[in-house]
Amino acid sequence: MGPNCVNVCDREGNLLMYSNGCAIADRTHNIMENGDSINYGESWEDFCTDLFSFGYPVSQNSLILPDPGNEEEGRNGYYLFHKRTEYLHNPLRTWCPGLAFSYVDMNANGGKGKVTEKNKLIFGTSDPGLAQGYLTACKHANGRDWWIFQIKQDTNIFFKILLTADTVKVVDSLNMTGKFDHNNNRGQAVFTPDGSKWIAFNSHEKVIIYDFDRESGELSNLIRINPQDSGKFVGVAVSPNSRFAYLSAKYDLYQIDLWADDIQSSLVHIDHIDYFQATPGFVSDFSLAQLGPDCKIYIVPGGTNSDLHVINKPNEKGKACDFKQHSFHLPNLNFNGSLPNFPHFRIDESEVCDSTLTSIFGEYVWYRRDMTVWPNPSSGIFNIELPDVGAGKVVVYDMKGQVVYDIEVSDFDDRFQRINISYLSSGRYNVEFYPDRNTRSKSGNIDHRVFYGTQVVKGK
User: Fold this and answer.
1) CA distances in angstroms from 300 to 9, 110, 269, 288, listed in the order given
2) What is d(CA 143, CA 348) in angstroms, rounded to the nearest whole number?
3) Could you tell me the pTM of the whole model?
4) Could you read off the pLDDT of 334-377 as tens digits, one per residue?
5) Cα(121)–Cα(173) distance, rounded to whole angstroms?
6) Alpha-carbon torsion, ordered 172, 66, 51, 293, to 10 deg
7) Is the N or the C terminus of the chain less surrounded, counting Cβ atoms within 10 Å?
8) Residue 297: in which H helix or E strand, if any?
9) 19 near 6, Cβ under 8 Å?
10) CA distance 182 to 153
């Protein structure tokens, strides 16, 4: 799946549908009836040869929302909101001519769904069109309808759309401070989990924060924050308690306190990338971010990668947030910095997420925990304290992700081990221990595994 991916599950976590911006797939991973040719046009011809191709370009150009009319008896539908990307050839750049929706009736085909309306234009606009990305939504104060926001490119106009049980309509166009030009499609926008603020982060405007009124849909009280450094492919996510925003700025991760009197002064540097390449040729930098259903924040690298970075305790201030780089190993490669675009569905519930969740995957994934190594740095001889979890394997990787040392550990071996990499060149290395014993969820099914790791510095 490419960067423009979305999906939705039921309240029990069962997959209902997903899309890469080219087509809509059902829960059986087949193209849904009438679900082909979403966003059909010139870009579709370039990127959408089939459902499992690269996918439609640009992140946050799609969003799935439940039909507010689902409260009515017998109604079970979802809206896929999406933007078509087209080319301007002189000079060559991309633009979005409007916002559209496709509607899925989940009562059809035995619950696998059917697209009953497709590529229905909500509103269009001439050049320069809509900004790439930044498609966001927040539930209305009535707990049923949805506010949807979209920015016009090269202007400071924000379109405010309201989704109700009866219609999708543009309510207003707001003339705000903050101009998103055609080079700013490499950022991210989010609402806080409590719906009180809208936040965007990109390399040009840096961080833009507005207060948000869920009743009227009004944005107000602009605050600008400037991180010390940021690259082009950046992202933002907010802690479950809506207090801390995390700015993944390609090479660095920052935290700001949204409750502080002076938010700029609350800026804290959390970490710098360690340049590890879980996938050869792709450094694990910091790009799009997303609060997960388990109350952790996941950050995807900007390029193709098999790992995610994780903020384990995002409600905590500063480094107590427990940030771990490339600590979540995926079963498959994540192509080109892909991360689904979700609103906060549980905004009116007492808990917006569930920290007791251990995994939401059908296949196991790897979760990283800390491991004690000393002295660090050293000339190449390190002592390791292994967790008391039985047999396993110690592996040392260089920053290109290549294995440079490994050793098997049995159940009866001393939990204190020593590794000698003094023969290797100076630099940083990842030391990891993978237990043979699987970790089981509360249901008893094997659904995730834990590994232990840290980074060491080998000097001369």
Assistant:
1) 21, 35, 18, 6
2) 7
3) 0.87
4) 876 788 999 999 999 999 999 887 655 555 667 788 899 999 99
5) 17
6) 110
7) C
8) strand 297-299
9) yes
10) 6
